[in-house]
Amino acid sequence: MAELLVQLAGRYDNTGQVRADVQHGVRPPHDALALVLVPVDNPGIGEHMFYVQEMAADDPNRVMVQRVWTFGIQQKNIVQSVWTLKEPLRWRDAQRNPETLESMVNIDVSPVRGCNITWKKTGDKFTGANDPRTCRSTSRLTGGTVRIDTRMELEGNELSLAETATDAAGQLVEGRTDEPFIRFRKP
Against a cut of 0.85, is the pTM above it? Predict the structure, then answer.
């Protein structure tokens, strides 16, 4: 787990993927995003905690997602828990001053239940996935309940994330089928 945590921390963007999409005529190209994963010393939330902020690659003021990830060992597996922030504006851009995150307490976050990600290592590559049978959410697009399928890969300086949402009939509501992964790289 220590190897995963060290490798995971840092700043990423997917501008290389966006350029390749444009060159190869992929329509629509992936959105140009930046991702920051900041390790935080806050045992009150979790022993191995990260503040995660996703924003537009060309405008860091356009924040798309803020989350807290915690990591632990369960039944000999590395398990990542995902938490939402109850007051996202309070913590916005916390990567600029990570010490502020040390004051976060349990009432500042809510667990995303049923959506834990289990990580495995094969060779030099880490892969993680949730169980889409237990991970449900409300779609931003339809307002209906959807199953969330999250997959992650970490190898070298690349972190790839894929998240799709399907309705009760199994129809794709959110995400991509052509290339579901957003391929973030550390510069």
Answer: yes
